[in-house]
Amino acid sequence: MRLGFDDDAQAEDCARALAAAGASELVVHARTRADGYRPPAYWHRVADVRAAVSIPVVANGEIWTVADAQRCRAESGGHALMLGRGIVANPGLARAILGDAEGQLPWATLQGLLAVFWGLIVAHIEPRARAGRLKQWLNYLRRTHPEAEEAYQRVRAIADSREVARLLDLPEAPDGPPLRHAA
Predict the structure, then answer these.
(1) What is each CA distance from 57 to 45, 53, 76, 85, in whole angstroms?
(2) Which mean pLDDT values do the consecutive 10-residue runs of the chain (183 residues) have?
(3) Cα(90)–Cα(87) distance, integer angstroms
(4) 111, 112, 90: which is closest to 102 by C-alpha?
(5) For the chain, what percentages of helix, strand and coil (3-state, to nearest 5) are there?
(6) CATH classification code of 2-97
(7) 3-state secondary structure 59-96
(8) I need a labelling partner for 183 at 20 to 30 A (CA). Which of 13, 72, 123, 172 fits?
(9) Helix (H, G, I), strand (E, B), or coil: what is residue 30?
(10) Chain mean position to CA 34
(11) What is the CATH number of domain 107-167?
């Protein structure tokens, strides 16, 4: 759940209603719908929600770094986190939060993951939207990997998925519909 729609005045009431309806856990995005994805996240309000219910509450929102995760835990009063865009930008973030000194996957590993992701895109996404999906992830990866910046700049203005695949050394994408449809 989010903290609310236009404001967070009913966050605790909504959490209690979800718990009363049988939810066994809540993930709280620490912003309202009106806040969108703009910083800051209001992690202290997740603590208020936690105090209102007896089920586990997971904090989410604006966790981009280990320091963000530590502040979120401290302000929300919880230990469980849900990572969103932060782990898209740095797929090694969860490892870093758990204490892995590296905390960032090497570019060679990410290239393999990009190939897997591309295969999923080709399998499930119409050709006209394929290049955009891959560029979206590269755009996030630019925050933590200079190689992603280079790759993004190579394909930034290209909409043809076959050309994107060629420029990034990915398996060629057929021009037709997805190989199989998502369930």
Answers:
(1) 12, 8, 9, 19
(2) 97 98 97 96 98 97 95 93 95 90 84 94 92 96 94 95 93 70 49
(3) 5
(4) 90
(5) 50, 10, 40
(6) 3.20.20.70
(7) EECCCCCHHHHHHHHHHHCCCCEECCHHHHHCCCHHHH
(8) 172
(9) strand
(10) 19
(11) 1.20.225
